[in-house]
Amino acid sequence: MKKTHKTIQYITLIFALLALSSCVNTGLKVINGLANPKEYTVFKDVSYTDNTSRLDIYLPKKQKATATIVFFYGGCWGYCTKLNKSHYLFVAETLTKQGYAVVISDFRQYPQVKFDEIIKDSANATVWVTEHLQEYGIDNDNVFLMGHSSGAHIAAMLANNEHILGEYLSEINGFIGLAGPYDFYPFTDDYMYTLFSPENDYFNALPINFINGNEPPQLLLHGLKDKTVYIHNPNNLAKKLQENGIDVTKILIGKTSHAKILVELSKPFRKNSLVLKNIIEFINQYSQ
User: Fold this and answer.
1) DSSP-assigned letters across all residues of the chain
2) Residues 90-149: tens digit of each pLDDT
3) Exposure string for 261-274, b = 16+ CB within 10 A, e = fewer
4) What is the pLDDT of residues 227-286, one digit of tens each?
5) Cβ pair 146, 286 in contact under 8 A
6) Whole-model pTM?
7) CA 151 – CA 75 distance, rounded (Å)
8) pLDDT value at position 52?
9) What dotted CATH number matches 37-286?
C-alpha cells in the first residue's frame, strides 16, 4: 500500500511540475482530479467587478469557516501561460479541509491589459470579499491574502501598498506568499507599466518599495531549489518588513522547487507538507 501511495505521489509530481513549469495543463488536471468534492461547497463565477472577471467561493462542508483565504494564482500575470481559477481546485479543497473559506479570483491578464489593470481587478476582488462574506454564511472577519509566484507578487502589492486597498487594508489579517517575486524588475516597460506612476518606472512594480509600517503580518515560504524566483526576494522583503516593525515569518524549505511549493498543497503531498503546516499555524496565530 505504501509503495502504491509513493508511486501516485511520484506520477502526480511529474505531471504537476510539467504543468507549472512548462505551461501544460495536464498536470493540474491530474491533481485536481484527486480533490474530494465532499470537503467543500462551491459558488462559481460570482461577479465582483464591472468587467467579465469572476471569482469562485469555496466553503468547508463539515464546519463553519474560521478564516477566509483570497488566493491569487501565477503564470507571469498572463505572460507565461493563461491559467484561470479552475486550475486551482486542489488548493481550495486542501484549505477547505482545514476549515477555511477560499476565494479564487480570475483577473484580466497580459496582453489584454497591463499591470495596473491586473492590480485593480485583484484589489476589487479583495474589497468585494470583505464586503460580501456574510452573504455566504461566513460570520468572522479573518481575511488572508495568499498567492503563488506572480500571484504572490499581486497579493504582496495589495498587502504592502496601502494606497491600493486604502481603508480596506485594515481588514486584512495577513499575507501568505509562496515563491513570490517581491524585489525584481519587470521584463519591459510595455509589459509592466504600473499603478500610481506617471513615469511608469519599475520602482513602483516592487512590493518591497511601499513598506512603511502599516502592513499586516506576513508569511514568506520559498523553496531552496527554486530556480525561477531567486531567494533574494523573500530575504529582502523579510528584512524590510522587520526594519519597519512588521511581524514576518520567513521559511526556506529544502529540496523544494518553484512548482513543488504549490504542489505540496495537493492531496498526495499535503499530509506531510511543511507548506501547509506553516500556513495553518500562521492563520491560527493571526485570526481573531
Assistant:
1) -HHHHHHHHHHHHHHHHHHHHHT-SHHHHHHHHT--GGGEEEEEEEE-SSSS-EEEEEEESSS--SEEEEEE--SGGGTS----GGGGHHHHHHHHHTTEEEEEE----TTTS-HHHHHHHHHHHHHHHHHHGGGGT-----EEEEEETHHHHHHHHHHH-HHHHGGGGGGEEEEEEES---S---S-HHHH--TT-TT--GGGG-GGGG-SS-PPPEEEEEETT-SSS-THHHHHHHHHHHHTT--EEEEEETT--TTHHHHTTSTTTGGG-HHHHHHHHHHHHH--
2) 999 999 999 999 999 988 887 777 778 888 999 999 999 999 989 999 988 899 999 999
3) bbbbbbbbbbeebe
4) 989 999 999 999 999 999 999 999 999 989 998 999 999 988 898 899 999 999 999 999
5) no
6) 0.88
7) 8
8) 83
9) 3.40.50.1820
Contact in structure between 214 and 162 (CB atoms under 8 Å): yes
Q: How confident is the model at residue 192 (pLDDT cuts 50, 70, 90)?
A: low
Joined grid coordinates for residue 44: 462559481
Written as nine digits, the cell of 32 is 485536481
> Residue type at 65?
A
* Residue corresponding to grid cell 461547497: 41
Cell digits for 114? Answer: 497591463
Give the domain ranges of the chain: 37-286
CA distance 51 to 183: 30
pLDDT at 108: 86
Q: Which of 273, 281, 219, 283 is nearest to 246 (CA)?
A: 219
pLDDT tens column, 54-90: 999 999 998 999 999 999 988 776 666 777 888 899 9
